[in-house]
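Task card 7
Instruction: Convert sequence to structure tokens.
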Amino acid sequence: MANRVIIESGGKRKNYWKNLWSFRELFYFFAWRDILVRYKQTTIGVAWSIIRPLLTMLMMWFIGWIFNSSVPEGVPRILLVGAATLPWTFFSSSFSEASNSLLGNSNLLTKVYFPRLIIPLSTVVVCLVDFFISLSILIIVMIVLRFTPDSRILFLPIFLIIALLTAIGSGLFVAALNVKYRDFKFIIPFIVQFGLYISPVAFSSSLVYQSKKIPEVLKFIYSLNPMVGVIDGFRWCIFGNSIPIYMSGFIPSIVITFFLVILGIRYFRKTENSFADLI
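Output:
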């Protein structure tokens, strides 16, 4: 029988969350390291944080224009797409980075103990920096088009937190699976690409919920995508009642988000002690 490699704290398992807090400086170090790698040591890193959301926005705008998807009166199509591209790009980046974070730091997992949650959580910080860069681009577009949001814009951080929780929950679950089943690193890009097409980025959720041709069961399945509620929420914050939040879609999205967080943390913690043995 092969020997197992077990690296764990000398304390009790029930002290895990206390240990996680005590290793917060390591979290800051990993986050700062990722930011330096992305923005200081390379030129394309800074450019990519601008080019990627712009290309996604233009592509989704073009798709919506080609298929002549309806746009609420007074809402520029480019802003409609931009308000959806913003949270989607943040989620897809955070999910991808968290999912691949353990394999990218495999040399650390076999040498020293620290709560492994620190690694995927720290990768989200650089994605937050990218998010605020993309947000500044959207604000510039709004200024150019002379579009001013109302007080609902103050609720934007709430939907950002929901997107963050969705990315962390699903990212933790896939990161743990990625250690045991290496094929998942090839599935992650497919998940992101497929998620883009089933999320209301190039179109509005009103096309789904108000359609009489789409069966109710398909509308419910559509609402199970947690990014539906997030994207609709971002648009509501920016455009107000011109693009309402559909509670029939928002509530299932919130439920799925918390389910993913619980599932991700529980499965990650369950398999964490075997990471050093499987890397």
